[in-house]
Amino acid sequence: MKRLTVVDDHPQLPLARKPEAAIVSTEIVRAQKTVEAAVALAIQVSGLPACEVAIACGIDKGHFSRMLDGDAHFPLNKLRKFCDVVGNTILPEWIAYQVDSGLVLLRTEAERRADAAEQALADAQKENSLLRNLLQGRASA
Fold first, then answer.
1. 0.85 exceeded by pTM
2. Fewer CB atoms < 10 Å away: N or C end of the chain?
């Protein structure tokens, strides 16, 4: 069952399509002259229409249109949602470049624990395989 979200007092179905996966070079991101151009690139790369991105982000379509025209500002409190919807980090990469910085992907504690658990499982599987081979070798001898 799909959950409805309310945008501008009108219920909307959540975005059903997933963004396209694409790799955009750092040079292309940095070549964008304005925040509007960076937002437009992020949307273009996603393969989604701007109106769907606006709805999925909970941004008024009129404001979103004015934002793309340079007549309104991007609501920074929607940055994470925007990146999730378009499936890329072009906009925050562009913002970081504007202050001579870059992005670093942070791993959460849950991700670190998952990695440790995966490594422990792989080690246990190797040990299990070694012990089976030793037992089979002894049993046939």
1. no
2. N
